[in-house]
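Late entry, written up from scratch paper. The run itself happened at the end of the previous shift, but nothing got recorded in the book at the time, so transcribing now.
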Amino acid sequence: MADTKGILFVISGPSGTGKGTICAGLPLGGEAEISVSMTTRQPRRGEKEGKSYYFVNREVFLEMIGSDGFYEYAEVYGEYYGTPKAPVLEKLAAGKDVILEIDTQGAMQIKNSCPDAVLIFILPPSFEELRKRIERRGSESPEKIEQRFGKAKSEIAAISNYEYCVLNKNLDTAIQDVAAIMKAEHSAEIDEKITQRAAALRVSENAEEIARWLSG
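Output as recorded:
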């Protein structure tokens, strides 16, 4: 990498858009790492400290909130989840990129606390396909599915707060799009095709298409 400091990339979007699968498929090559969240819940079978989550008790988590130790955090069903600053800052200072896979609410907290972060929104091919993906999980009631679908619509409407948008119609293409964005953000000396590909994914370059997508 040409830069001496890493870049914080935030990849988010509604539930069912495939952001986790995209992150898992990125060719990181030792130059980037996926951020590990912190939680107060108990570890589940197979989860490992420092890889799945940082597991702490409620007292420690609240102390970190009080000392401004998180980029973002939220309480979900009585347990806290958050992105601790210290590990992220350490990796960025060492020249590594850090990728946060996070919901849109957390992404807005990151945007406020870290203006240099690059926000990438993952779009599903259509509202119809998003509904199918949520329904295919088969683990939620019809009422819960409707709640998730309604929330997804409001989250997608906030896309103007992001720098880039990637349409996850084809997984391999979406992974390549995110990888191109990451490369382009680092240096203007990379392949011109990469630069052009990333530029075409900017939200500002797709305003009309996004408007049509939201109204469709």
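The two ends are 41 Å apart (CA to CA).
(Scratch paper discarded after transcription.)
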